[in-house]
Amino acid sequence: MSNRRGRLFILSAPSGSGKTTIARRVVETTGGVGISRSYTSRPARAGERDGVDYTFISADRFRELRDAGAFLEWAEVFGDFYGTGADETGRRLAAGEDLLLVIDVQGARKVRQAGVESVGIFLMPPSYAELEQRLRGRGRDPEEAILRRLATAREEIRAFPEYDYVVVNDEVDACGDRVRAIVVAERARREAMRDTAGAVAATFAEHPATGRGGRPGA
Ligand code: 5GP
To answer: I need a surface site. Which of 17, 53, 164, 169 has the fewest CB within 10 A?
Structure first.
């Protein structure tokens, strides 16, 4: 890998829009992209592993870390704390890895307000009715939690104009392809290609103009 710094991608979506599935899909199909692992004070759900899905910590420990400035961003979502570790993020980006932060809209705002360069991608469910159906269909949450998530979704959906890209998650494969295309296109931006493009251009400067034109030996 070159000494290029990685790019920070923020993926936000109302809960139940399938953002974790999409993020994993992008990582599986695109080399050099990783998902940032967040810290949370919420208890692990069945099947979730500490240090894999999240780093699970107590609310007190979370506050300690937050007050010590350990988070690039943090937010309280559905009564629990969530945050992105600043050191780990910085290290991975410095190593040239592109990083996907799967975070809520409050966290995305904090990253932008901190002046950290990032590319925002907002994932939308096809409709409110579809989101409701998905939340009920996954059978994970009690009714009151579903209603709370839907109410939050109504608020969150309004944040889409704050993002650089909007993708509708109508179908997992197609949606994953679109998010992957955004990552690939962002890598080809002139600023991102500056070192490589400069190095290529330099090989041209090493050759004085021959004035002959055409292909060598032609
Ligand atoms: P869940 O508890 O369902 O895993 O996540 C709840 C919400 O918290 C989701 O919208 C998720 O994207 C968000 N979230 C997860 N990690 C972070 C984080 O590090 N920072 C912020 N701001 N939100 C997060």
So the answer is: 164
Atom of ligand 1 nearest to the CA of 13: 10
Q: Which pLDDT score is estimated for 209? A: 77
Q: How far is CA 93 from CA 7, 24, 90, 108, 207, in A?
A: 7, 18, 5, 17, 35
Give residue-wise pLDDT tens across range 38-74: 999 999 998 999 999 999 999 999 999 999 999 999 9
- 82: Cβ below 6 Å to ligand 1? yes
Find the 94 Cα to ligand 1 centroid distance in Å.
24
CATH classification of the domain holding 160: 3.40.50.300
Contact yes or no for 125/137 (Cβ under 8 A)? no
pLDDT value for 215 = 62
User: Is 119 within the bounds of a domain?
Assistant: yes
Among candidates 47, 2, 28, which has minimal Cα distance to 172? 28
Neighbour count for residue 218 (Cβ, 10 Å): 6
Terminus-to-terminus CA distance in the chain, angstroms? Answer: 36
Q: Which atom of ligand 1 is nearest to the CA of 71?
A: 19
Residue nearest ligand 1's atom 22 by CA: 107
**How many structural domains does the chain have?**
1
Domain extent, residue 164, equals 8-193
pLDDT in tens, 99-129: 999 999 999 999 999 999 999 999 999 999 9
Is ligand 1 within 6 A of the CB of residue 35? no
Closest ligand 1 atom to residue 38 Cα is 19
202 lies in some domain: no
What are 132-167's pLDDT values in tens digits? 999 998 887 889 989 999 999 999 999 999 999 999
Tell me whether residue 213 is in a domain. no
Q: Which atom of ligand 1 is nearest to the CA of 39?
A: 19
